[in-house]
Structure prediction request, 244 residues.
Amino acid sequence: MCINKNEIVIHGPSLAIGAAIASVSIIIVFFAFNAIDDEPKLAIEPAQTSQQLISPNIISFAFIASGSPILGDPNAPITLIEFGDYQCHFCNVHFHNTEHKLLENFIKTGKVKMIFKDFTIIGPDSVNAAHGTHCANDQGKFWEYHDILYNNWTGENNGWASSDNLLRFAQEIELDIDQWSDCMIDERYSQIITDSSKDARDLGITGTPAFFVIGPDNKITRISGAQPYESFEKIFNLELEKLS
Prediction:
């Protein structure tokens, strides 16, 4: 997990996995959820398990507002929310090791829909990369830009997400460059990116990636860090059993 040491922005590489993570108890003010956190060296206080159902208004406010367009069937019974930073090493690990399997087995099959929310904790290039996705969304290509960012990841704060490279990525997915560039220059989505990162902090998230699974009964399960595919699969299958 890439850890947000300063609560807003980290300038420099991610801290080691063994670093302590702050308590997630803040989120209990809003609701209770199940916590899945199997990374052996992460010191994180799990939230209390609860069967409490969550108001759709709270879900919309905390998890959906300021997020990406939905990936998958909007009517899918399960929602997966990812809070991520495009420069984060462990977000990139999740993308390459797990996300494609989730896409094939759960999202494309109409069982799960996914929303990505920005938690820009690594540095200024993280914010610029996030801007790139939202400006690409003006042309219906949020997820294409999201993917090309992770497919070109080479580290943290080393320049791979520079302005020149972000422009090249836009060209590679055949965006209207004038339209995309105007959006970037205007910083059109600064407030959305800021609001999304605030949502992450309000939910008690201190690192990326962080995931929340919203079941068909609006029960929330949290998954911290780049967990293996099997962790997601187990939770999804348990939620799908509720529909039987």
Notes: Residues 89-107 form the longest helix (19 residues). DSSP finds eight helices and seven strands in the chain. Residues 7-52 have pLDDT under 50 and may be disordered.
